[in-house]
């Protein structure tokens, strides 16, 4: 085979072969065909690589994306929680006044209401103490107070704290529709939907008839041994049907339940158009309000006062012995001893 | 015995109309009630409940049966708040009840906007005493009112009226 001889002085690229001409034409054709796409790809690359441009792009859809994700599950809220907590902590550290001013409109009325409730509870306790001070029952309880070492007011409270929260209605304030209902009793429950409507109608009736401001609600009414306590939130109201003599301060439990429900269901309440199903998830808050305090008399004569969730686990508040026989026996023993000593001495 | 409505869509519906047009008679046979009619003369409203089936879906109407008044000034507008729809009852034997119904409809529109309603021309069974002519009903329909002829006595079209209102309210929700 003959060796190929290459001329060194000859520039291989300068030679316009038919193949080179084809390449150029193909390059031109390619440029004509895909040049717009290439420009577009370059722009996209620039957008992705440039943080300013990228941020601008994300900002256009951020609000909508947050709304969509928040409506699907709780993950967005969970993800944002540590950041928000940290931001609040930093804000307080930086300038506590700023946040204090922001929450003042909410916290002010809450504190006022709490103080008013505390004073009302204290007044009732004092009234009960005075009422029982000079009666035969009062004398018995005073003896009990001395014997057990408990304050008299506490003894009075223990004896009078007998009540049972039998039903709780969660009502949508604007429509009067029942959102959820829980009951500790199975018999004698009238149609809860209609009762809920009627309670709302009575509330409206009171406003109209007495010219009461919309912000002030009918809070309580008593019928025989039953009392109905109504606590109003922003969009919902909680009505409790209580049998017996409930202590002041019980409404704090109702207020707490109402606040929790309104917080958890804020979006559902805003979108409410008559569907009560989502409120079934708030059942545990309402069940926590089905409290009762009762007085048991055991065969031994011991008294036990319990505060318990109906059907739930009982919590013992106090046990104290009231066996009069023990006292009489001790007194007799003393008398016998004195007589015995008297006989020996004289 | 109350009907379980925990999972049903609930709607507040008002029964409106002049005094003695037969609102309460219209619903008496068709609804669940636990409250006495004396509530209407005391607090001015009575609450009843009716389950209506619309497009294969059950709806619980919580009916606020407002006491009928002869003058619009007496209508307690606070009882209307939050209503999703209403039935406007007219007595076919008394023309003045129609004018009161028109005034009531205006008041409701001012308070709640254009919420669905059905006008019921009641006492259709009292043929000899008719006071409202067919042309008046045609006029109302021209105005865009949905008018249904009813009779509590013969049960004419009462259920149909509830269903028609239910359909309108569901359509409104969409």
Q: How do the strands and helices of this protein lay out in sequence?
A:
The complex is a heterodimer of chains A (346) and B (174).
Chain A: H1 18-49, H2 51-72, H3 75-94, H4 96-133, H5 136-148, H6 152-160, E1 163-172, E2 178-183, H7 192-210, E3 220-223, E4 226-232, E5 236-244, H8 250-264, H9 266-270, H10 283-287, E6 291-297, E7 303-309, E8 314-320, H11 324-345
Antiparallel strand pairs in A: 1-2, 1-5, 1-6, 3-4, 4-5, 6-7, 7-8
Helix pairs in contact in A: 1-2, 3-4, 4-6, 5-6
Chain B: E1 9-17, H1 23-28, H2 38-42, E2 45-54, E3 57-66, E4 85-91, H3 96-112, E5 117-122, H4 134-142, E6 147-149, H5 158-173
Parallel strand pairs in B: 1-3, 1-4, 4-5, 5-6
Antiparallel strand pairs in B: 2-3
Keywords for this structure?
heterodimer, A: 346 residues, alpha+beta, Beta-Lactamase, eight-stranded antiparallel beta sheet, 8 strands, 58% helix, B: 174 residues, Rossmann fold, six-stranded mixed beta sheet, 5 helices, 6 strands, 26% strand, globular
Describe the structure.
The complex is a heterodimer of chains A (346) and B (174). In chain A, 58% of the residues lie in helices and 16% in strands. With 346 residues, chain A is an alpha+beta fold. Among the domains of chain A are: 24-94, no CATH class; 163-319, Beta-Lactamase, CATH 3.30.450.30. In chain A, strands 1, 2, 3, 4, 5, 6, 7 and 8 form an eight-stranded antiparallel beta sheet that branches. In chain A, α1 packs across α2 (51-72) and α5 (136-148) packs across α6. The model of chain A is unreliable at 1-14, 296-306 and 310-323 (pLDDT under 50). Chain B has one domain: P-loop containing nucleotide triphosphate hydrolases (Rossmann fold), CATH 3.40.50. Chain B is 30% helix and 26% strand. Chain B contains five helices and six strands, in the order βααβββαβαβα. Chain B has helices spanning 23-28, 38-42, 96-112, 134-142, 158-173, and strands at residues 9-17, 45-54, 57-66, 85-91, 117-122, 147-149. Chain B has a six-stranded mixed beta sheet. Chain B is globular, with a radius of gyration of 15 Å. Chain B starts with 8 loop residues before the first strand and ends with a helix. The mean pLDDT of chain B is 84. The interface between A and B is medium-sized, with 29 and 32 residues.
